[in-house]
Amino acid sequence: MTPNIIREYDNQFSKIDDIIKLTLGEPDFNVPEVSKRAAIDSITGDDSHYGPSLGTQALREAIADFMQTRYDLTYHADKNIVVTVGATEAIYDTIAAFVNPGDKVLIPTPTFPLYESDTLILGAEPLLVNTQDDDFLLTPERLKATLDEFGDDIKVLILNYPGNPTGRTYSDEQLKTLAEVLKDTDIVVIADEIYSELTYDQNHHSIAQYLPEQTLILNGVSKSHAMTGYRLGFIAGPEDLIQGPALVHQMAVTTTPNPMAAAATVALGTPAGHQATMEMNDEYQDRRDYLVNALRDLGFELDTPEGAFYLFPRVPEAYGDDDPAFVTDLALKAKVGTVPGQAFGPGGEGHFRMSYASSKATLEEAVSRIARFLEEQ
């Protein structure tokens, strides 16, 4: 294990005066007012005792309604949902529940590095599959070839979509074809859908629609409602699968904080909460469109992301595949902080991640600085 590389670069670049940091996946919006009020009411109402281990009844019911309304997925509050301390805890709980030392966890890359780190903590083996040649998506052909090679050693497949760092996501048909490959196996699919509410060119679909008995969905309010500091996530899945993660959660953290649960309940369960997400989504799409066009005008090669709030351009040709060198130069000379693609595993080399979870004015200034840097180079 090594420290989180994203955080390492962010900490390093934070020491540079006047730096514009586009490093972290940290929304620049404030928490919706309806959620703030709910948290305050919980505190002033002395809601200070242990809540249920699985999460408050009101929040689990709100989650069940959210999943049904938004994604046509049926989960029952009392037996299919576990509330966690952010989606980060949900990642650990689900991997821990299904692997023993020596088991393999299939992780398409480039992707969020925590999946690999948690797998290593648990003594299992990350099986990193480079998807760069397949437009940063796992294809059924690549999946089948990997399963044929490693067979029963693979216990878990992790899918993150819309993806961090690429912003790519899967269409309904693509998920259906992946499910066809997986349906005759015992592999548990951990579908990290934390960015599901932030999609721009197509509606979000879940592989749970086609593989319900093998899929656990991870989600939360950090990205969709700018509530990263509230640390509220959840796991949803069939009763027989979710019992293991529920036990890991219970032993690790006991339960989640009641005021934060109250805030998440109204975020997911009220029209005002949904409206706040839609307004953020519209702003993210505007920023995406601006930044994609601006970077292409500067000569960068990049795909248009379909979700989340990241771009994953190629570094300039002069740097080859040395993305750490480019990112370091950009920070020191242009004072724009980004993250090297190598931080996200095989297939990330030669790219860099930019978060556009910053104001339009900040992004415009960042583009101006990058333009001057390229001219000087």
TrEMBL record:
<dbReference type="InterPro" id="IPR015421">
    <property type="entry name" value="PyrdxlP-dep_Trfase_major"/>
</dbReference>
<dbReference type="GO" id="GO:0008483">
    <property type="term" value="F:transaminase activity"/>
</dbReference>
<dbReference type="Pfam" id="PF00155">
    <property type="entry name" value="Aminotran_1_2"/>
</dbReference>
<dbReference type="InterPro" id="IPR004838">
    <property type="entry name" value="NHTrfase_class1_PyrdxlP-BS"/>
</dbReference>
<dbReference type="InterPro" id="IPR050596">
    <property type="entry name" value="AspAT/PAT-like"/>
</dbReference>
<feature type="domain" description="Aminotransferase class I/classII large">
    <location>
        <begin position="18"/>
        <end position="370"/>
    </location>
</feature>
<dbReference type="InterPro" id="IPR004839">
    <property type="entry name" value="Aminotransferase_I/II_large"/>
</dbReference>
<dbReference type="InterPro" id="IPR015424">
    <property type="entry name" value="PyrdxlP-dep_Trfase"/>
</dbReference>
<comment type="similarity">
    <text>Belongs to the class-I pyridoxal-phosphate-dependent aminotransferase family.</text>
</comment>
<keyword id="KW-0032">Aminotransferase</keyword>
<keyword id="KW-0808">Transferase</keyword>
<protein>
    <recommendedName>
        <fullName>Aminotransferase</fullName>
        <ecNumber>2.6.1.-</ecNumber>
    </recommendedName>
</protein>
<keyword id="KW-0663">Pyridoxal phosphate</keyword>
<dbReference type="GO" id="GO:0030170">
    <property type="term" value="F:pyridoxal phosphate binding"/>
</dbReference>
<dbReference type="GO" id="GO:0006520">
    <property type="term" value="P:amino acid metabolic process"/>
</dbReference>
<dbReference type="InterPro" id="IPR015422">
    <property type="entry name" value="PyrdxlP-dep_Trfase_small"/>
</dbReference>
